[in-house]
Design goal:
Length: 452
């Protein structure tokens, strides 16, 4: 009989990692699936509850990835499960593009209610973050009748053709897919980028009145969980206002309460013209949204649509998620996030040669290391100890647990992560000591073999 997950300790590793069934499944998977899927490490999950994930071998992990910041309410939250089951028993699909669905309008009204804009807004609902980005990009071009867009280096906005044109976090996302969308200009993230917009782009490359929008992640995600300077977003808002350029906030990863506010941009009291949401708003169901000021929604019927967008089952999950976020999970994200960061910050002083920074807001936390190799090694050590984390950027490990994470789970994660860093540091010292011993014994000569 399978032991209920709630009765298991977290983590609870009962086999070698990966286990025999996981290794067999990985081999089967590789025979049939696209090699483009990056796969962080060989975990094969089969059950989840709260912050716990059980793999195919019966190992239980503490999940601090939340499916890449998607499972905001935890795995299989009973309220979300019940909402999905009720809706699936009534109506699973009927295209909201061509017909009227009560739950679509209800979801749009709720998203408009929680949007970080004063004044009326309207909502387009799709299936994913990339679709939300595409919708926002199309609306900005349509409304302004301008083509050019400014985005930031380090940004991740998705992998579809329009979204990947805005993305600038890894070169491989562009390699051999060109030409990508023309008219996209990238600048450094933060205040440095604002100066470059004014001095380089507007003066030397393209006048300001040729730009439809600036798209920004209020906190960069895959770029390294980078929190900008406090005056960056207010200055960006002022720049856009001065030149009649729309400000698009990509809150796909930072939204839905993850940072301790419903939307990360609210930490700086800045209002976007268009907001993009996905991931955490659906608790794992495929849903994304583009929320815009009503006066921008000037496109007519057929200008944009989606066959599956606004699927009733996904929207039932979205409505349940919003209720849970507003009934304590956003507050919990802020509290637990402070505890985790306070627990991790001593790593900077304890391991100054390895750990460079601990940063973030709420449960969007990045730990920066001295190199990508160190970040990878720490991630794998945490995995083997039962803690799931992910890289973000070349040398950063991100923590983005479900917003239901408890104080005890937060403390466990800090302990395991600290042990993982200590293990990597000890092996680094051992390697250096071995090299030094060999050098002293004359087994290593400086520069030996350099010419060959």
């Amino acid at each position: 009989m399978t032991t209920p997950l709630q009765a298991r300790p977290i983590p609870d590793i009962v086999t070698a990692i990966p286990g025999p069934k996981a290794r067999a499944h990985v081999e089967f998977d590789h025979a049939w699936t696209s090699p483009s899927l990056p796969r962080a490490y060989p975990i094969v999950p089969v059950r989840g509850l709260g912050c716990a994930i059980e793999d195919i071998d019966g190992n239980v992990f503490l999940d601090f990835t939340a499916g890449i910041a998607v499972n905001s309410t935890g795995h299989s939250h009973p309220d979300v499960v019940a909402a999905i089951q009720r809706q699936a028993a009534e109506l699973q699909h009927f295209s909201a593009s061509d017909f009227y669905l009560p739950i679509y309008a209800q979801a749009a009204a709720e998203l408009a209610r929680i949007a970080p804009m004063t004044g009326p807004t309207k909502v387009f609902i799709g299936n994913s973050g990339a679709e939300a980005v595409e919708a926002g990009l199309k609306l900005a071009r349509y409304h302004t009748r301008r083509q050019n867009v400014i985005a930031f280096l380090g940004a991740f906005h998705g992998r579809t053709m329009g979204a990947v044109s805005l993305t600038a976090s890894k070169a491989k996302y562009h390699a051999r897919f060109g030409p990508v969308l023309p008219g996209v200009y990238h600048v450094p993230f933060g205040n440095e980028g604002l100066d470059e917009i004014e001095q380089r782009i507007f003066k030397r490359l393209m006048p300001a009145d040729e730009f439809a929008a600036v798209i920004v992640e209020p906190i960069q995600g895959e770029g390294g969980y980078i929190v900008p300077e406090d005056d960056f977003l207010p200055r960006l808002r002022e720049l856009c206002d001065r030149h009649g350029i729309l400000l698009i906030a990509d809150e796909v990863q930072s939204g839905a309460g993850r940072t301790g506010k419903m939307w990360a941009i609210q930490h700086w009291d800045v209002e976007p013209d268009i907001l993009l949401a996905a991931k955490g708003i659906g608790s794992g169901m495929p849903v994304g949204a583009m929320i815009a000021r009503s006066e921008l929604m000037t496109w007519g019927p057929g200008s944009h649509g989606s066959t599956y967008g606004g699927n009733p089952v996904a929207l039932a999950a979205l409505l349940a998620t919003i209720r849970l976020l507003e009934n304590g999970l956003i507050a919990n994200a802020g509290i637990r996030g402070r505890e985790i960061q306070e627990g991790l910050r001593p790593l900077v002083e304890r391991f100054p040669n390895l750990v460079r920074d601990v940063r973030g807001k709420g449960l969007m936390i990045g730990i920066q290391f001295d190199s990508a190799d160190t970040a990878d090694a720490v991630q794998m050590q945490a995995f083997e100890r039962g803690l799931l984390v992910l890289e973000a950027g070349e040398d950063v490990v991100r923590m983005s647990p479900p917003l239901v994470v408890s104080q005890a789970e937060a403390a466990t994660a800090v302990r395991i992560f600290t042990d993982s860093v200590a293990h990597v540091a000890a092996h680094r010292r051992a390697d250096l000591e071995e090299v030094e011993a060999e050098r002293e014994a004359g087994l290593i000569t400086e520069g030996f073999g350099a010419a060959g």
